[in-house]
């Protein structure tokens, strides 16, 4: 004989206080009700609690009566909605669909930003399961803070109608609306990243060290001219590197120390590194710049690995030559793989962050590639990008909340 069941969804709203959820679930427990789904959110002390439970027709009336009286005592509102068995089974069937995490961030997020993103989510016939704010509560004077941050994360379920078009739309919005958008598949690797590799120049620091050295050597215009030729594709990175290093011949070694001690550190690096180290991430600098400066950053912030180019020095002067192989784009990708192997980390658990075209190989090799304040072509290839805030924006793409970052020092 088939047992009849009832599925009832209760929605509770009102002023949040300790003990509301406990009191209501206690009632369900006394009546042996089975909780099928539960979710709760609190916005400015306003509670929104939903519970879907299963019970028998003989007990449902008594349960609803007890819940109603308890909510009256707690001064919160309750609404009951019966759920058809067919509707529940259809909902359960959605479990097989893909899940995505869509993160939006910027100095300040507006209703327009959220509307533009959710419009595209709806157009792709995806369903939003959850929304949470990752950044701290915003004071009313936030608009006046030049280094403010705002980040909202959407948990989305479904199979996009056209994921290429969706990513293209997000890229377009990020370029025209002054906020960043990340779309990641919500899988086990996204939740278990373990290695993060950074470019150095114009990523960890707000300068190109070779330009700083060239200016001190009095060959700034010549070095920049070689850089421009490389950017136009007239010479490759390795050849441009050889030519630029040759122009530094005769520069005193002490100049490197002076430059290192005054490097302009990118906004958010210290905060980001504190969190990554505290949570067990392995970190690496993979740079087409110079080892001297990479090691200086390693000592200052605690990076685990540094791979860059070694300048040859004789009698306290640069010789205009380098030692060992050149770390170019291809080598960066190889080094990322090698470090992952040494640390026994799946390549899908790796992250790479960089700004230039020579970072593209490692950005595409890593499980998550992030273009940082990069050119549109680099942003498009990397898929994920940060262009509006500092390097600690990486933490939000990993799902960290400001409350965790602040409370777990």
Could you please describe the fold and organization of this structure?
This protein folds into three domains: 6-93, Alpha-Beta Plaits; 97-186, ACT domain (Alpha-Beta Plaits, 2-Layer Sandwich), CATH 3.30.70; 195-207 and 266-407, Rossmann fold (3-Layer(aba) Sandwich), CATH 3.40.50. The protein contains 17 helices and 15 strands. The strands form three sheets. Strands 12-11-10-9-13-14-15 form a seven-stranded mixed sheet. A four-stranded antiparallel sheet has the order 2-3-1-4. It is elongated. By secondary structure, the chain is an alpha/beta fold. Helix 4 (111-123) runs antiparallel to helix 5 (163-176). The protein has helices spanning 20-30, 57-74, 85-93, 111-123, 163-176, 188-191, 209-217, 220-231, 237-246, 254-260, 269-278, 291-301, 329-342, 360-365, 376-382, 393-397, 402-407, and strands at residues 6-15, 34-43, 46-55, 76-83, 99-106, 127-133, 150-157, 180-185, 195-198, 282-290, 305-314, 317-323, 350-354, 368-372, 384-386.
Q: How does CATH name the architecture of the largest domain?
A: 3-Layer(aba) Sandwich
Structural class: alpha/beta
Question: Which CATH top level class of the largest domain fits?
Answer: Alpha Beta
Task: Report on the biggest sheet.
Answer: 7 strands, mixed
Indicate the percent of residues in helices: 40-55%
The residue-averaged pLDDT reads 91
In the CATH hierarchy, the third-tier topology of the largest domain is known as Rossmann fold
What is the CA-CA span between the terminal residues? 59 Å
CATH superfamily (homologous) name of the largest domain: HAD superfamily/HAD-like
Uncertain segments? none
Beta-strand segment tally: 15
Please, how many domains? 3
Percent strand: 25-35%
Number of helices: 17
* Biggest sheet: strand arrangement: 12-11-10-9-13-14-15
